[in-house]
Automatic annotation (TrEMBL):
The name this protein goes by in its record: RING-type E3 ubiquitin transferase
Substrates-to-products reaction catalysed: S-ubiquitinyl-[E2 ubiquitin-conjugating enzyme]-L-cysteine + [acceptor protein]-L-lysine = [E2 ubiquitin-conjugating enzyme]-L-cysteine + N(6)-ubiquitinyl-[acceptor protein]-L-lysine
Listed InterPro entries: MDM2_MDM4_MUL1 (IPR051652), MUL1-like (IPR022170), Znf_RING (IPR001841), Znf_RING/FYVE/PHD (IPR013083)
Origin: domain of life: Eukaryota
PANTHER family linked: MITOCHONDRIAL UBIQUITIN LIGASE ACTIVATOR OF NFKB 1 (PTHR12183), RING-TYPE E3 UBIQUITIN TRANSFERASE (PTHR12183:SF6)
PROSITE patterns (UniProt xref): ZF_RING_2 (PS50089)
A Pfam family recorded for this sequence: zf-C3HC4_3
Lineage, uppermost ranks: Eukaryota, Metazoa, Chordata, Craniata, Vertebrata
Segments traversing the membrane: 12-28, 235-256
EC number: 2.3.2.27
CC terms in the record's Gene Ontology section: mitochondrial outer membrane
Gene responsible for this protein: mul2
Compartmental location: Mitochondrion outer membrane
GO BP, one annotated term: protein ubiquitination
Amino acid sequence: MDEFPVRTVEALCLGTSLALSGIFYYVYRKKRKTVDKLNDAPHLTLDGKLTDILNVTPGKCLQYVVIEGAVQPVGEPLRSQFQDGSVGVVQKLMLREHKLVWNGLARTWTDSERVLHQRVNAVPFNLVGSDEATVRVLCPLEASGLDMEIIHEKFHQATYGFTDIIGQYLSGEKPKGQLETEEMLKVGATLTGVGELILDTDRALKLRPPTDGSEYFLSTADFETLRVEQENQAVVWQVLASVFALAGAAVLLWVGRRYYRKLRVRWEQDRLRREFERLEAGAQRVGVVSAGSEASQDIPIENACVICLSQPRGCVLLDCGHVCCCFSCYEALPQRTCPICRQNIRRVVPLYQA
Ligand SMILES: [Zn+2]
Ligand SMILES: [Zn+2]
């Protein structure tokens, strides 16, 4: 093998697609596991019997369960900064800057967003079911899927004068304004929690992030919505992994095809050479001297190979029939075309003088 059959670009494409496919497959497997765990998780009703169930459970702990209840603060709730009378247990205040940035490549202004300030407050809270049964929710900020209600949203338009406009064109940035939002998990909202349920030493039920590393969920949507959402995400990762695996396979096929073509050219060359040698040997047996085996001295110039000028013309190129070169020059041709007429060379036979 004279050279490595994979070019740098091909190796790069192959490596990238295989690496991405691997990463996406890993994320997909993780998501799939989460979905499987969600499907297997038992749904518990939050009532007075729950404490008894946990009392007889070994370790007083249920690894992964789904539980639903109404949000109730343990102490004083949080008050909304913008909406009078709104109280909650988790509050997220955000200030985002919106601006237009000049994109030199697309030659347009594109939107850009940046978080200027973010604050999350939380107070301890319980989920309350029937019979006043409660479950304390631990570490709510570690949970996934907690999309809270937006209770306040206000856009502050940026104002600017003439000099600002010139400055914007020079800097390539045009401020649009600032968006102020407040999200809140309100008192009384129904919350679905998926996590580890324990009966603590103080005889209180507590929901906490699973100790086995499974994903902890708190969601204001119902369980089915949460499950379908996770399943859809798994499908997206699966599709991405497959697409990149296919891309990798396509690159491999491409390299293989090119390599095969090269091999075929080499086989054809070998076949022609063997045929030439066979014909030459056959001619010598019957006493005919082929033109190529003449002594190399004293070749008349009109009989010398047009390429090396030192050997006699020893072969006939077919189908064009030109007698123009010696066999070693024919073999060294960069392409299988006649050096005189550029026609394809299908066969090459020795030239005899009887
Ligand atoms: Zn020659
Ligand atoms: Zn020719």
